[in-house]
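User: For my dataset I need records formatted as: sequence, then structure tokens, nothing else. Please produce one.
Assistant:
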Amino acid sequence: MCNHCGTHGSPGVRQEVPPRREARRILRVIETGYVKANDPVEFIPYGGELVGILEMFRSFYRKRMRLTENELRRFLAVPIAIRDRLHYEMLLATVLADTAL
């Protein structure tokens, strides 16, 4: 059901599924400050392994299934936000502690 317009199952309403979209670029702030119109901006491509944003979101909200050590290490190997990094570091510590028992 579309929570915004409540059209699920309404007669005469054509339902279309939008094409699957995935974010292709994530921008990271390297240096804080102000940007004005016409300031030069540099794009520096990341050369390491990539993890899709949808994969990250799905794993973050996956409640019933635990992430494996390999998944956690893969996520921690890419440049992610500090709040996400702390979350995955905590999960990895838990997984490692459980396997040490």
